[in-house]
Design goal:
disordered N terminus, single chain, 7-stranded antiparallel sheet, alpha+beta, 16 helices, Arc Repressor Mutant, subunit A, 5-stranded antiparallel sheet, globular, Jelly Rolls
C-alpha cells in the first residue's frame, strides 16, 4: 500500500490523479484528436487533501477533522492512530457539482441526527467504487457496494457504514440543482444503480475523470448537464417503488420541502399559507411533518441551521442581530436561547471561534490540520 500512496503523492503535486492509473484505464488519444480540442487553458483548479506528509500519529486525526462536517469517522477494531492513516482526496468544482477522487484505508463512518441538526449539508451523493467494498445502513436497510458499482445517497438523511481499503470517485450535487426530481431521488436513497444506463454512467464518469485536469471553461457546463441527466435517467430505471401511495406521499413532502426552502425568510411562511400553496389540509400538512416534530418546528430548525452556517462563515460579517431577525426572531435573547439549545453553543461563541481560529465544543469545529475541510469544498460547489 505504501507504494501506491507514494505514487499518489507524486501526482498530488501535478494536475490529476495518479498517472499510472490513468494510463492503465485510458490509452493515450491520437495526436489528431488532441489538435482538434479548443486552444483554451484548463478551467478547473484541483482542491487537495492528503495525510501523506504528516507524522503517523497525526494522520487519522487530520482525516477526522477534514471529514467532520460530513461524517464522523472511526478506526476499525484493532487499529490504532499510531499505525498511521494514509488518505488523500482531490476535489474538482464544476459549478454546483463537486467531483472528489478519494483513496482511504479501512474505516467506519456515521452521519447521525445530531450532525444533521448542525449541518447545512443536504446534498445528493453519488459514488463509483474503484476498489474495496462498502456497507451503508439507512433506516435498518444495508446496501453493499462492490467495485465498479454506483451507489446513490441523500445527505439529508442519517446513515452509517464501513468501508475497506478503497479508491473511489464521489460526486456531490446541491439539493437545489436537482430539486425538480427530488421525490424520485429521495425514493432512491441508499440504492445501487444498475442496468444498462448505469453501465453507461460508469463509462462516462471514467472518461470525465481522465479529462478533469484539461477541461476548458466552455466544456464544463456540458459535462455538468450530461452527468445530471444521466443520474436522473439511471435513478428512474433503477428505482422500483413498491406502492404508488409511497410515491405520492414523497412527492408532496418534497413539494413542501421546496416551498419552505424558497420562502424560508418570508414573514408569511405559516401553515395556512403552505396549505393554500400546496392545496392540502392542515391535517395533511401536520401528518407530513409529524416525524419532524411539526411543521413549525421543522421551519425553526431549518432557519437555525442557516443561521449556524452564516455565523460559521468567516467571510460573513452580518451582525448577529440581523441574522437573528432573518431567522424569525424579533428578540435577540430568544434567538440565543433557541440557538444554544439546538447546537450546544451560543451564536457569539460560534462567531468568536471562527474569528480567532480557536476550537469550539462542537464537531463542526474539529481541529483543522489543513486549510479546508470537505464541508468547505461542498460549500464552494453549493
Amino acid at each position: 500500500m505504501s507504494e501506491e500512496f507514494g505514487s499518489a503523492n507524486k501526482s498530488a503535486k501535478g494536475e490529476g490523479w495518479p498517472d499510472h492509473l490513468e494510463r492503465r484505464r485510458w490509452p493515450r488519444e491520437p495526436a489528431t484528436q488532441k489538435e482538434d480540442r479548443p486552444e483554451a487553458p484548463p478551467a478547473l483548479i484541483p482542491l487537495r487533501f492528503s495525510t501523506l506528509d504528516l507524522p503517523l500519529l497525526e494522520q487519522f486525526e487530520a482525516w477526522r477533522a477534514h471529514m467532520a462536517p460530513l461524517v464522523e469517522v472511526h478506526l476499525p477494531n484493532g487499529k490504532s492512530p499510531d499505525d498511521g492513516f494514509l488518505a488523500e482526496q482531490i476535489g474538482w468544482r464544476l459549478g454546483d457539482m463537486l467531483v472528489v477522487q478519494q483513496r482511504t484505508p479501512e474505516h467506519s463512518y456515521i452521519r447521525d441526527q445530531a450532525m444533521l441538526r448542525s449541518s447545512p449539508i443536504d446534498h445528493w451523493n453519488l459514488g463509483l467504487l474503484r476498489s474495496g467494498r462498502a456497507w451503508t445502513e439507512v433506516d435498518r436497510h444495508v446496501t453493499e457496494t462492490a467495485p465498479e458499482e454506483i451507489f446513490f445517497r441523500s445527505l439529508s438523511y442519517p446513515y452509517r457504514g464501513r468501508i475497506t481499503d478503497s479508491t473511489a470517485v464521489l460526486l456531490f450535487f446541491s439539493y437545489e440543482s436537482l430539486a425538480n426530481d427530488a421525490s424520485l431521488l429521495q425514493a432512491a436513497n441508499n440504492t445501487i444503480l444498475s442496468g444498462g444506463l448505469a453501465d453507461l454512467l460508469v463509462t462516462y464518469i471514467n472518461e470525465m475523470e481522465a479529462k478533469l485536469s484539461s477541461l476548458t471553461a466552455g466544456e464544463v457546463p456540458g459535462v455538468i448537464r450530461a452527468v445530471k441527466d444521466m443520474v436522473i435517467a439511471c435513478v428512474t430505471s433503477s428505482t422500483k417503488l413498491d406502492a404508488k401511495q409511497m410515491q405520492t406521499n414523497m412527492g408532496m413532502m418534497e413539494r413542501a420541502h421546496r416551498y419552505i426552502h424558497l420562502n424560508l425568510h418570508s414573514g408569511n411562511l405559516t401553515p395556512d399559507t403552505m396549505c393554500q400553496a400546496l392545496g392540502i389540509s392542515r391535517t395533511r400538512l401536520y401528518q407530513l411533518f409529524e416525524s419532524s416534530g411539526g411543521v413549525l418546528n421543522y421551519i425553526r430548525k431549518l432557519r437555525l441551521q442557516q443561521a449556524y452556517a452564516e455565523l460559521s462563515d468567516r467571510t460573513n460579517h452580518r451582525p448577529i442581530a440581523e441574522i437573528a431577525d432573518a431567522a424569525g426572531f424579533d428578540v435577540a435573547a430568544n434567538f440565543t436561547r433557541a440557538f444554544s439549545h439546538e447546537f450546544g453553543v451560543s451564536p457569539r461563541e460560534i462567531r468568536r471561534a471562527m474569528g480567532t481560529g480557536h476550537v469550539a465544543s462542537t464537531a463542526a469545529f474539529a481541529t483543522r490540520s489543513h486549510e479546508t475541510t470537505i464541508g468547505d469544498w461542498l460549500a464552494l460547489a453549493g
